[in-house]
């Protein structure tokens, strides 16, 4: 990343004027920090981080900074990291609105989640920095200086004035946004002390507008959430005060009900409950433990030296399932590997929907047990180890299940969704489960997790001497010579998180977190310490639009990187979670 000038330079407009009609590459001479044209004495600066090589290249990168006195936000709005993240998210959205219609300015504002983004950061002193893409104007391959001058003299200062100065904003809206995020964060932090894995507030709106519209659904058919009485929990939040809703306890929870009655919608809300949401989203007070991971089957994924013998006892080709590798996993082996990898990375809550799970890994009923002898069936179903996973390893599970009653026997609680209304049917489920089916358990416990040590030489971000780390939407990451398929990593909600994952992987290698000696969990612990600084930690790698990722999505990308190689490591004693 280019160094900033020791002091802001004067006369950006004059410099641009001298470039009229010059070759487009001359824009590179403007890289550095300038006083914001027309700003007076507020101290606002505009930094051109990098220029475009030609008019058809990706936009230039620029940063607009307002010092604390110029931004003038009350100290209580930026007093803590959570408040700074919330305030920055609000300002990025207002900046995107202020720049709307100006095709040369591109501000990454995000969607319904309030993520830690590089596009806007608020410093511990209250200063504000907005980073954005800037398509520098040209006529063919020549500089269009007059258009560039208008951008610097009018458009950029207008964005600063309308979006980054407290006096120009709706003070009540700013405060509501910050307090909503702070309440959500406080609610999530309270879950472990309450013995809960998730909380869904009464009145929450869980359905979304459509499969491509993540805004809340509306209309007479939308049913607000209402907790079953015996699961209702009351919590006190810093700003909202007393809030009631469903507290989902630790252990094994089953969500049942007919098709289209809201089972998967509830699970999806828990899946995104690891993130805070904007006011009006409907899920502002739907939160899950930070260590929650959604799992699914994933045909064709790569698996590198994972101990899956808890689920796969033997294979016809004689492969060692305690040290299992494949470049083309089946649905069952992929889900088994993903579960073991998640626990290795430190997951404490697993979410599974039968619609996207491998059926033969989830259940083997009595009739199938009678027909196919165990010595001919390599798979051990999850139903037989899910309780041990919680009892012996402290990992809870929430399952959506509509087709297998065998899970009723192992569930601590059973929640039924009926026309989007939940009810606790645990007592009835136990009555049903008391009728013998003739099925017998095929496992007694979930074994200790085997930790792996990645080889740093296998994590190369360069290809043919050039750095290649970029996202392709939410579905894929280019990292060096490899394309990482992330379509089944369902808690990625934004393409900018994929960019953040790539930068996080670079940090893990550059800073020696992956050193050939540390386990993956230990390397992720070091990454967490870096990412506690927020976007600044990844900006040290590269100034571009990204959202700071969690360790779990970063680990998921690492595990799907086809070039990644690992050593083996001894298992931890039962009860010691990865990364604990």
From TrEMBL:
Taxonomy, superkingdom: Bacteria
Coiled-coil parts of chain: none
Pfam families: ABC_ATPase (PF09818), ABC_N (PF20446), MRB1590_C (PF21117)
Domain ATPase of the ABC class N-terminal: 10-166
InterPro entries per record: ABC_ATPase_C, ABC_ATPase_put, ABC_N, MRB1590-like_C, P-loop_NTPase
Chain ranges of the MRB1590-like C-terminal domain: 468-566
Domain ATPase of the ABC class C-terminal: 172-444
PANTHER family (alphabetical): ATPASE
Name of the protein in its database record: ATPase
